[in-house]
Amino acid sequence: MESLDLRVLEDALAWREAGSGVTLVTVVETWGSAPRPPGALLAVRADGVVSGSVSGGCVEDDLIARIKAGEQQDQSRPCMLAYGVTKEEASRFGLPCGGTLRLVQEPLIDVSWVREVLRRTAVHELVARHLTLATGAVRLQDAQRGQTLQFDGSTLTTFFGPRWRLLLIGAGQLSQAVARMAQALDFEVLVCDPRDEYAATLRIDGVTRVLGMPDDVVQQLQPDAHTAIVALTHDPKLDDMALMEALNSDAFYVGALGSRRNQHTRKLRLAEHFGMSEQALSRLHGPVGLRIGAKTPAEIAVSIVAQIVQVKNQGDAPVAASETSQTLSVSSPA
After folding, report:
1. pTM, entire model
2. Which domains does the chain have, with CATH numbers?
3. Quick one: which of 35, 36, 68 has its CA closest to 49?
């Protein structure tokens, strides 16, 4: 359920609406060290232009040649393809360690399901797509986070989710560095900073400034399990209320800038004045970012984005308590 696959669908839809033929190819099974996971999606336009990938190598070249030559037996229904069945073929197509790919190739004829998937994921819904290979029929239904591709030989079920989203509280130099790196990783980036003096310097194409006080913005955003929130103003008046809302939401990652001492003080404040539980406070990543000895804004941004990606890729796996929680006590930490 990668947001990059949504771009593939967007490209495929645009090509079909422009009158071009489009073929979709989905990785359904892999053996060995296959370069792309099950569910990876590729769209091939009739003239050979591609979006996405299934191997990142020569498999795409072979698929393009097959599609341009019209080699698919029945061009109105899906079919199965396999690459790397033998060591010689694996070597030919650049599959490492004898890896094997099993693919479903389907002509994109009816685009109504594509529009519906894009519409639903745009409002942060999870969607399951069921493809019947014998007929090419497609059925959509609601999906749950954590579900994975299913294939029984006759029906292929894939899942599409919304883009990963990052809300930054603060528009200073560090926030801008984080925003650029997150964009490169295909995050939708939102920035909230009511201080015009800082927000005036936010000039990054594709980054959206959200107006309002940070806690109100978090509430309005309704963070889900595809949302990360990082407070970087270093101002309790702006950060604390936003963090309180974020920690009580479904956001998969919540982080805040500040030293260990500042984080300890912050947690005491949130617990004593706002009644936040230790369980909720243990979700806070603070000091924010991985410990890589970062000094400059760019280095700190690397540590923050790397930690967000780490947590994202762990899915529902619990984060070690040593990384997130600190005992709340009246005495100051060392």
Report:
1. 0.73
2. 3-160 (no CATH), 165-324 (3.40.50.720)
3. 68
